Amino acid sequence: METKISKILKIDAEELQERAEMLKAMAHPTRIAMIEMLYHDKEMTVTEIHSSLDIEQAVASNHLGILKNKNIVKCHREGKKMFYSLKMQNVHSVIQCMLDS
Q: What is the value of pTM for the model shown?
């Protein structure tokens, strides 16, 4: 279904909705920090992330799950460790734009 907004932006309504959901997922201080860390460090374990942010492991895992669900981060397992990295490097530009303002 095409809306006036999607017509103006030259993107279909479903894709526009997906992008809005990605922005919502990024819109949390902890998740912004995670994106920033992953951009610079390229790949981190859950332990490295929760230790760096001084948050509980379960909290870090929950936030990472939200980012993964919206295709912002990806993960892979090596033994018992889960490694996270940015799936979309360009999301850092959105964060950087906000930090630079």
A: 0.85
For residues 63 and 30, the answer to whether their CB atoms sit within 8 Å is: yes
Distance CA 25, CA 9 (A): 21
Residue 3 has pLDDT above 80, yes or no: no
Q: Which two tokens stand for residue 16?
A: 């526009």
What's the confidence (pLDDT) of residue 6? 61
Residue 26 in this model has a pLDDT that exceeds 80: yes
User: Architecture of domain 29-100 in CATH?
Assistant: Orthogonal Bundle (1.10)
Delimit the domains of the chain by residue range: 29-100
Strands (E), 19-99: 44-45, 73-78, 81-86
